[in-house]
Structures are given as structure tokens and as C-alpha cells.
Specification:
Order of helices and strands: EEHEEEEEH
Distance between the termini: 39 Å
Oligomer: single chain
Radius of gyration: 18 Å
Strand order of the largest sheet: 3-6-7
Shape: flat
Number of strands: 7
Number of domains: 2
Number of helices: 2
């Protein structure tokens, strides 16, 4: 049976037994879904709080090649505080860049 609830600050689904209890060890398997837009938004806020910099934002470094086609580049976390641009972290996806920034903080 599945149940829904809040784990920390996340809304999660988890297995429960017939008495409505979470089986031992199942909390270890509860992880955020980083492809979810709401989770990404929360992760951006956590990274901003970790750096005490609420100007942090994410960007995809896409470009146009010689044939006029878009090429995908890495995602970066940037700080624009003090009117300067500082690359904080980089990753193949937005979530990877945010996690890298959080791990580096």
C-alpha cells in the first residue's frame, strides 16, 4: 500500500504495511526526484541559502554552431551579486550543477 506524507520539507510517497507503518529501512530509500520542477526550485533556494547569495541562478550554456544549429552545453550556477558574474559550479544537467554547488559550499 502507498501513503503520502511529508519527510522533512519534501512531500513524498512511501510504502506502508497493513497497520499503516513504514517498514524498517524504507526511509533510507526516500530520495528527492531531481527531474521534478518543484524539487529543482527548492534546490535552487537551498543552494542560495548555503551561499548566503540570493542572486544565484542557473543557466544552460547553449550556443549556435557554424551551421546555425543549437548545441547543448553544460548547466552552470552563477552568482551575479556585486554586479559581477561568478561561475559557482557546472554539470551536464541543471540538477547536477545545483548539487555540485551545494557540495562545494
Amino acid at each position: 500500500m502507498l501513503a503520502a506524507g511529508v519527510c522533512g520539507q519534501r512531500f513524498v510517497y512511501f510504502r506502508v504495511d497493513e497497520q499503516g507503518r513504514v517498514p524498517p529501512g524504507d526511509w533510507d530509500a526516500v530520495v528527492p526526484v531531481l527531474s521534478d520542477p518543484a524539487t529543482l526550485g527548492c534546490l535552487v533556494n537551498v543552494v542560495r541559502a548555503a551561499y548566503h547569495d540570493y542572486s544565484l541562478c542557473t543557466r544552460s550554456l547553449c550556443s549556435i554552431d557554424a551551421m546555425g544549429d543549437w548545441t547543448t552545453g553544460p548547466w552552470c550556477v552563477y552568482s551575479t551579486s556585486n554586479h559581477t558574474q561568478i561561475r559557482v559550479s557546472e554539470g551536464p544537467t541543471e540538477a547536477d550543477a545545483l548539487v555540485a554547488a551545494l557540495e562545494a559550499s
